[in-house]
Amino acid sequence: MALIGAVGTVLLGCSGADGSAAADSVDQERSLTVFAAASLHETFTALAESFEAENSGVSVELSLAGSSDLVAQISEGAPADVIATADETTMGRLIAHDDLAEEPVIFAQNTLTIVTAPGNPAEITSLEDLADDSLDLVLCAPQVPCGQASETLLARADVEVAPVSEERQVTDVLGKVTSGQADAGLVYVTDAAGAGEDVESVEIEHSDEVVNRYPIGVLDDAEDPELADAFLAHVTSEQGRAALAEDGFALPEPTS
Q: One of this protein's Pfam families, by short name (predicted)?
């Protein structure tokens, strides 16, 4: 009986040690769901990787799409911890419904440019050229941030256009041009830069008068608020700002 008791004690001791180790392992495995505007694809992919590298056991799941679609998904109950949109108006819908834990932070700025096929075969030099009916023009849909910016820019220049399609996200506009399905499109300067030699950019006069400011915020029902706050801090850190600047985003003044 003494022997059995001793063996039982040893087994219990082993079970407790293993159980504790397993619990510790689970505690170290933390996940974060980040919703981000499609135009942030390259930058946020890099920032998610650097955040994971600096936080052992953390996994960042990125969901990249048009800002309006992301906000709609959250409103319909999709789980997310952090959201970064391509404009303040779209983020305002979440603020209006008290979906954010605190006031969002502006972390980047972007403007529009015209993109064409390499060599600019249609010889586009300005917004006015986009009014040519023979041109296959693609824009973002009016309800998404890049579409709202496009409408504002065209209206200020008093240019009327007839796009052959309106896309739900800026990356789709870029894709139509790079694939040869469109002669030209209006995209963010960061998307044009990311496309490299696949497109030619045509600078728009006074484009700096229509600026999209990108806010980022933590959702009120974030599963791990501490981790979500840490990711937001990573995006707005010097490392995050350097990554954004490298991809062509303009930066707001750093917050104190």
A: SBP_bac_11
Instruction: Give the C-alpha separation, 251 to 249, whole Å.
Output: 6
Q: DSSP secondary structure string, 164-191?
A: SEEESSHHHHHHHHHTTS-SEEEEEHHH
Rounded to an integer, the average pLDDT of 25-52 is 90
| Element at 211 (helix H, strand E) | none
pTM of the model: 0.86
Residue with tokens 């911890």: 81
Residue with tokens 């087994």: 11
Please name which of 187, 214, 232 lies closest in space to residue 88, comparing C-alpha atoms. 214
Q: What is the pLDDT of residues 4-20, one digit of tens each?
A: 444 344 333 444 444 33
Pairing mode of beta strands 30-37, 82-84: parallel
CA distance 44 to 230: 14
Domains of the chain, earliest start first: 29-109+214-246 (3.40.190.10), 112-209 (3.40.190.10)
Q: Are strands 212-218 and 105-110 parallel, antiparallel or unpaired?
A: antiparallel
Residue 23 has pLDDT above 90, yes or no: no
